[in-house]
């Protein structure tokens, strides 16, 4: 069996090279993912997705089997004359998917957009909501 020399930092170098390629790519080629907060309470699960600058007609929400998918596109600002000195806001298509637990009633999902934040409410099935059981004393 041949002896193979191992360089422990070679993996780090490879990762840095990948990061550099993504960072140096034109903005249109860079993937972006909107930030999402997910919280749960006794009523169900709530998602808050940051989508400033994304038009309502450019957002689509699908539920297929047990997966909720939010996808859309932020269009690039069209400028007349002139050019950008700096452009940090990402644009282009995005997609986020979430596996739904079996406690969610997928037929009653509600989505609202306000001030650039998409709020998606995933209500619990009635039989899975917490309930209090009365104790009877004899």
The CATH architecture name reads Sandwich
Number of strands: 7
Shape: flat
SSE string, helices as H and strands as E:
HEEEEEEE
Instruction: Report low-confidence residues grouped into runs of 5 or more.
Output: none
What structural category arises from helix and sheet content? mainly beta
Tell me the domain tally. 1
Q: In CATH's first tier, which class applies?
A: Mainly Beta
Number of helices: 1
| Overall mean pLDDT | 84
What summary fits the major beta sheet?
Answer: 4 strands, antiparallel
Measure the end-to-end span. Answer: 78 Å
According to CATH, what is the topology?
Answer: Immunoglobulin-like
Order of the strands making up the biggest sheet: 1-2-7-6
Provide key terms for this protein.
about 140 residues, mainly beta, Immunoglobulin-like, 4-stranded antiparallel beta sheet, 3-stranded antiparallel beta sheet, 1 helix, 7 strands, about 35% strand, flat
Describe the structure in your own words.
The mean pLDDT is 84. With 138 residues, the chain is mainly β. Helices cover 11% and strands 33% of the residues. The longest helix is centred in the first third of the chain and has 15 residues, at 10-24. It has a single domain, classed as Immunoglobulin-like (Sandwich).
Layout of helices and strands:
Layout: H1 10-24, E1 36-40, E2 44-50, E3 59-64, E4 67-74, E5 92-99, E6 110-114, E7 117-123
Briefly say what this structure is:
With 138 residues, the protein is mainly beta.
């Amino acid at each position: 069996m041949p002896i193979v020399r191992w360089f422990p930092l070679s993996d780090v170098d490879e990762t840095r090279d990948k990061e550099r390629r993504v960072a140096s790519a034109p903005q249109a080629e860079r993937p972006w993912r909107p930030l999402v907060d997910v919280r749960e309470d006794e009523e169900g699960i709530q998602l808050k997705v940051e989508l400033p600058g994304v038009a309502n007609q450019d957002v689509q929400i699908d539920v297929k089997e047990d997966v909720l998918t939010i996808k859309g596109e932020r269009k690039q600002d069209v400028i007349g004359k002139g050019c950008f000195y700096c452009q940090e806001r990402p644009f282009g298509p995005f997609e986020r998917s979430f596996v739904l637990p079996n406690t969610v009633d997928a037929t009653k999902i509600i989505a609202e957009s306000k001030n650039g934040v998409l709020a998606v409410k995933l209500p619990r099935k009635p039989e899975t909501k917490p309930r209090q059981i009365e104790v009877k004393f004899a």
